[in-house]
Amino acid sequence: MDPGLSSVRLTVLEAVHTLSSSEDGGYIFSTLRSLKRYLGGTENPALPEEREEFARLHFSAILRCLVGKLSPHWLELLPNGQLEELWASFFLEGPADQAFLVLMEALEGVAGPSFRLMKMARLLAQFLSEGRMAAVLEGQCRQQTDLAFPLLQETLLIKVVGLPDRLGNCLQHENLAEFFPQNYFPLLGEEAMRVLQAVVDSLRGGSDCSVSFVSQVLGKACVYGRQKEILGVLVPRLTALTQGSCLWQRVCWHLVECVPDRALEAVLTGLVEAAPGPEVLSRLLGNLVMKSKKAQFVMTQKLLFLQYRYTTPMLQSLLGYLALDSQRRPLLVKVLKELLEMWGSSSAVRHTPLPQQHYVSKAILICLMHLKDTELQDSRDELLASLMAGVQCHLDSSQPAVRRLGMVVAEVVSARIHPEGPALKFQYEEDELSCEMRALATPQPAADSPLEAGPSVAAETPDKQTLDSGVPPVRPEGCESELDSDDEFVPYDMSGDQELKSSKAPKYVRDCIEALTTSEDWEYWEAALRALEGLVFRSPAATREVSVELAKVLLHLEEKTSVVGFEGLRQRALVAVIVTDPARVAEYLTSQFYAVNYSLRQRMDILDVLTLAAQELSRPGRLGRALQCGSLGPACQPSCAVAPTWRAVVDERVRRKTRRFSKGSPRQAPAGGPNEFNSVAGYFFFPLIQGFDRPLVTFDLLGDDQLVLGRLAHTLGVLMYLAVNTTVAVPMGKALLEFVWALRLHGDTYVRRGLLFAVSSVLLSVPAERLLADLPDELLEARSWLADEAKKDPDEDCRVLAMKALLLLEKLKDKLLPLPSP
Amino acid sequence: MAARPSPPPDPQFVLRGTQSAVQALHFHEGAQGQGHPLLISGSLSGLVHIWSLQTRRALTTLDGHGGQCVIWLQTLPQGPQLLSQGRDLRLCLWDLAEGRNTVVDSMGLESMGFCKGSLLARGPQRWTLAVPGRGSDEIQILEMPSKTSVCTLKPEADAKPGMPMCLELWQADSSSRPLLLAGYEDGSVALWDVSERKVCSRIACHTEPVMGLDFDSQKARGVSGSAEKALAVWSLDEQQALQVCRTHELTNPGISDVKIRPDRKILATAGWDHRVRVFHWRTMKPLAVLAFHTSIVHCLAFAADGLLAAGSKDHRISVWSLYPRS
After folding, report:
1. How far is B147 from chain A (nearest CA, A)?
2. Which of A39, A133, A305, B263 could be stapled to A191 by a disulfide with Cβ–Cβ 3.0 to 4.6 Å?
3. Chain B residues in contact with A487 (beta carbon < 8 A)
4. How many CB pairs under 8 A join A and B?
């Protein structure tokens, strides 16, 4: 054995002995001082070989021994904390990886809070604040790959990234702010930046270096879900540094490439999120998607098809990144094809949640914005086929939002892939979303990055403002010197200023029918339509004579001339007719609902007017008002007329004979009255619920006409709800629950919403005792379905509705539970 | 401002009892110290009602036109004297002082049309009166109270403007030469220099007959309404030439009268669509649509204090107080 080396060993052995046995402060101090020679930095450092041997073989042992000696008594062997300072310097100046590992090991070895624990925690905090973590990382980067110990590296990696968790566990409530993840990971990011800087410097110096350990740290931190903290530091710095330097770009690409596959997704997501634009992303990633299969999968599949929580700017960065390099552009075309395929699949339209459909649509529009016409030409037929299928199934949907989405995307896409044909144009109301979608499809003026564009915009706006305020606005007319402000002349509401209709309106209901059926004088026809509702209410007896005929005329009425508010007028007139003669007209209309030769529009109208009429009939207080108008037949008038006078006489007597000391403001009690809907609810409800499963040639509720089915379910729910407190509610509830059970697995969202609504209205309208006594099985079935629906339905509204229905069911249970106790 | 506009205003009060369509309205301010002004209305049945705005009742009824429609009412600047023009081709001068209601003077007219006359005070006890003349396109200028015919204004032979439909005599502040604005049947408005008996300027404002016009001599701007769907605003420049500034489209066709409030802030039109429309005079911004009447509104009058009266074929006179003068 080489004598020089053994002399190091002897010194160390001696020192360990001294440390473990001696109580003499001065002696310990001098021993430690002598050991410190091997760390360098003192006035007479040891030989390089000795130092290396010490660092490699003995340093950990010394550190462990030092940690073991740590106690308040030991530190006070010398005054002024000299010993403590020397003690700490071993950790802060020696090889950083070993010091870090020993510290972590010792921290985890201590059970419960103690003096030692806190001392070491402070030491670790100092270790971090002095930037020793960079030394730890750098040490791993400098090592040649063949020399590195994989096991040691693995341990180090776990401890570096897991530091906040571990410290949190050890210190519990005493934890220091430095170790909180929100503080630690930005620090780790800073240290990583310093290491990268060192790597770049040494590469410039010609020596070899590897960044793989930093990549691993980065990957692991991202897997731990700390992308925001660590990348929030790294990305802006790297963005700036990679701008002008090829070397930095290469280091950066290498950094991402070396991230282990299992962490790549987390890192890429974080980068896409943190990068301020496609150009930056392209600088940071290079051609990673072409080199790594995993990266390609994450970027082109996972982020686009499997997830949908990312924001539009992220999508723009991601797809812009794909578009920026000629090697990557084929990927973009492929992505567009796949996106359109998904967009056009009817199963996807039916079963994916709406936000995901928005996400996919946005991605399609952004892709289109980046692609050139020549690139689109090659795969035009394929794209067109997917588009057509997609338009079809979007327009078939019963949800307005999906239909509108289909229209917006179809317009934009068809304009791009089929520019020579006539432009596709749908009629839909512009809203925020459609404007946003359109904006996505139009290419933005080339700005290098939003960050760089920011200040120039900000600088421009004040100029404009000063310009605006500097020049007085030009007055519309040559104004005179007199000061009359327009402020005192605030216009009144002038919305009532309509064109005047000159023709005369019919005065009788029968005249109206005649006018509506035969008149060729359109002004008279329109006047008849306008007058009808009032006439029906004014002359109920005359209406009852012709009610069914009138309903038939109105149901078949077409808008022959352009009449403002035609639909509303017709609907109100129909409602008035039903309210006047509920039984017969409702019977007629419900029978027509399942008759042949009606359009879907007419069938939906039938449902609408039945709902509105039922609402009107069941409105409390309606009867009283009708009585005052004298609209009821003469048969019941005497009794009605007598009742108020009798009550008035009694009230007057009571008032006179009662002495009151104080009197509150007279409160009008809401007048009670029978529910008029009570006697006729059956006419509305049962004919409607009977025929839904018998398809006609032109009308198949269980097939294509699911929109009407959804409306039917809603209507039945409303009728059920309005039949509260009526005797017919129980059989209605039973029938409705059966209806719901039959359709519960319907694929259409709108239908399911209707069914859930219907269940809720059954729970609200049917008395609790009767529900439990008459419909226990149906309730159980409904309950299990609701529970399932609340968990699994893809549509959020459905889940909420199911949840509400479940709550109602729970309330019902609460109401019934106290009953058996007495 | 996002605040919703206030709902259209209601009339301050309504005068009923003419039992016939109201064809002419006039506010009589009364002598100083007499307090409330009077409202004078002329009806289709030939009666003239004098309304007290305090009691809101008719004080007197004057019957002097033999059951023929009264189309124009005007009080003279001095003393309580009233001129009324009827379709019985008579112009009557009434003495209303101290509760009297007798015709003190009357003269025959020679036009069968609906053209209202116009009066310009040119000094104490001296007025100039313009009325439609004998020929269908003529305008006669009379010196009152002597009833001497000053001249007859006859358009040039090739002009063919049709009958005069409305007249407005005025006088610029700077000169004492009376000027006459006349709206004709062919939709044109002409400016006559009365003393020179010639047309200074003539513009075609409308395609239908001009039914009413009013002129703001301070701003040298006027407005006219016709049977068509638009109001025309025109101005008079230094060279006494008329030019159309703008036209304002209306919802329904037909304007029977146009009046500018004496303070020249707002303008009101009487419409065949039963509505009175109020505009800001300087900007022509629509301010209100007063929908109260159930038939054609025939005439309008502004009082000096800003009160607006509208007379309609539905036998009612509505009185409105809008944008009160500060």
Report:
1. 41
2. A133
3. none
4. 56
Q: Which of A311-315, A800-804, B100-104 has the highest mean pLDDT?
A: A800-804
Helix H or strand E segment including A349: helix A346-351
Per-residue DSSP letters for A4-29? HHHHHHHHHHHHHHHHHH---HHHHH
Question: How close is the nearest chain B Cα to the Cα of A767, in Å?
Answer: 45
Q: Residues A506, A531: contact at Cβ < 8 Å? A: yes
Cβ-nearest to A493 among B8, B251, B274:
B8
Would you say residue A497 has pLDDT above 90? no
More confident residue, A624 or A751: A751
Amino acid at A499: E
CA B139 to chain centre: 17
Positive or negative, the CA dihedral A380, A384, A385, A387 is positive
pLDDT of residue A352: 85
Q: Which helix (H) or strand (E) holds A565?
A: none
Greater model confidence, B9 or A65: B9
Helix A115-129, helix A150-171: angle, nearest 10: 120
- Residue A702's DSSP bridge partners are none
- What token pair was written down for B267? 């303008």
Nearest-by-Cβ selection for A484 from B275, B282, B287: B282
Alpha-carbon gap: A475 to the closest alpha carbon of chain B (Å): 10
Cα(A361)–Cα(A349) distance, rounded to whole angstroms?
Answer: 11
pLDDT tens digits, residue range B51-77? 988 889 998 899 989 899 999 999 887
Report whether the peptide linkage leading into residue B145 is cis, meaning its omega lies within 30 degrees of zero. yes
> Strand pairing of B221-226 and B266-271?
unpaired
- Coil vs helix vs strand at B72: strand
Contact B8, B291 (CB under 8 A): yes
Given the structure tokens 């994450």, which residue do they identify?
A298
Cβ pair A81, A143 in contact under 8 A: no
Is the CB of residue B265 less than 8 Å away from at least one CB of chain A? yes
| B273 vs A: CB within 8 A | yes
pLDDT > 90 in chain B, percent = 48
The pair of structure tokens assigned to A668 is 């009008």
Check if the beta carbon of residue A734 is closer than 8 Å to that of residue A782. Answer: no
The helix/strand/coil state of A244 is coil
From B10, which residue of chain A is nearest by alpha-carbon distance?
A492
More confident call, A625 vs A392: A392
Both tokens assigned to B238: 């230094």
Find, among A401, A404, A441, the residue nearest to A426 by Cα.
A404
Choose from B252, B255, B312 for mutation: most chain A CBs within 10 A: B252
> B283 contacts in A (CB within 8 Å)?
476-477, 486
Query: Which of A480, A487, A500 to mutate: most B Cβ within 10 Å?
Result: A500
Residue A514 in this model has a pLDDT that exceeds 90: no
Cβ contacts (< 8 Å) between B4 and chain A: which residues? 493
Report pLDDT digits (tens) over B265-294: 899 999 998 899 999 998 898 999 998 998
Of the listed ranges A433-437, B17-21, B239-243, the one predicted with least confidence: A433-437
- What pLDDT, on a 0 to 100 scale, did the predictor assign at position A418? 80
Q: What is the CA radius of gyration of chain B?
A: 19
| Two tokens, residue A198 | 């060192």
Pair of tokens at residue B202: 């003539």
CB-nearest partner of A491 from B273, B275, B286: B286
Distance, CA of B12 to CA of B309 (rounded, Å): 10
Distance from CA of A405 to the nearest CA of B (A): 31
Is the confidence at residue A22, as pLDDT, over 80? Answer: no
Do B252 and A476 count as a contact with CB atoms less than 8 A apart?
no
Q: How far apart are CA B301 and CA B317, in angstroms?
A: 11
Residues of chain B with C-beta less than 8 angstroms from the C-beta of A491: 5, 285-288
